[in-house]
Amino acid sequence: MNRRNFLRTSFLGTALAISPISFSAFGEPTRTAARPGCLNLSFQPYELKLRHAFNLAKNKRTTTPGVQVRLEYDGLIGYGEASMPPYLGESVESVTAFLSRLDLGQFSDPFRIEDIHAYMDSVAPDNRAAKASVDIALHDLLGKIMGQPWYKIWGLNPDNTPNTSYTISYQSDPAEMQKEIDECRPFRVVKVKMGVGHDKEIVEALRRSSDVPICVDANQGWSEKEHALEMCHWLAERGCLFVEQPMPKEMVDETAWLRERSPLPLVADEFLQRLPDVQRAHGVYDAINIKLMKSTGMHEAYKMAVLARALGMKVMLGCMTETSCAVTAAAQLSPMVDWADLDGNLLISNDRFDGLHIVDGKVVLPDRPGIGVELLG
Predict the structure, then answer these.
(1) Which of 46, 104, 148, 204 is 20–30 Å from 76 (CA)?
(2) The whole model's pTM is what?
């Protein structure tokens, strides 16, 4: 008996004891025709509401469009999610249009992950968040069939999860700025969004209240390499761990120049999307930031982490503003990374799932099968 069949046979009894969770909390979903013994997909738009406005280098926003996904197979349900911040180039319309084109009912074996991903790539290029939503739901489903969480399936030790950073951005209202700073007190690392023209002000405001280590995400906001280098030195003197995407992703030579001179590691974010980009980042950046919405989900994210390690690069695990569904899915990989920024669910006011928890700043994984989430309400 091969490993896959052994796992399915051993854990199917446990999985079938799990009660399917109603999807009605999201409203009436769009469904494909249900076929027994096949994958059945349904999905529903769901707008995420930010607790504080995000003031980034290139935009300001108070919401993030999203799509919630459900994948059903023989009475078991896997949950997934697409979150689409503006820079990804996806929208509710593009995600739902892509999902509507999928015929997952052709797959009678949900363990054919490679085939399902190849099929999704053949339907349309890009659409990374849309593909991630299916991938997350598929992993949730498979974990439930096997009766195990994915960190165990991957052989990872949950004690090795990192601390997560908590994100703050510049607020023009001093009271609102102080409120953000106060909210980050339980965390051991604070992530500061920069590139908006008030970069030093926000760090100085934070340092008046706390000496907690920081990391910085410039969101491509520093367009001059000399200024970027000056900021790296200034930040290094103020307890910064690394700088994420300091310059526009197109400025490859300038970023390589900066890397040779910077006292802080540089982390690729917008520069890096999927697996082939890891090799491109090598020698230009010191580390990569893996996000499920960019990588098409957990399947490729795991491969990216393994390749980065083989190339001697550090690995950061990030997220968009997401519910606990996608954030907890990403967290399944967290025991194998150096840094984590898994606070997307904490930044919204309308989370629909219970999943990972942050205890004294550290990621704590739920001991539940699949991606480890339960639908609230």
Answers:
(1) 46
(2) 0.88
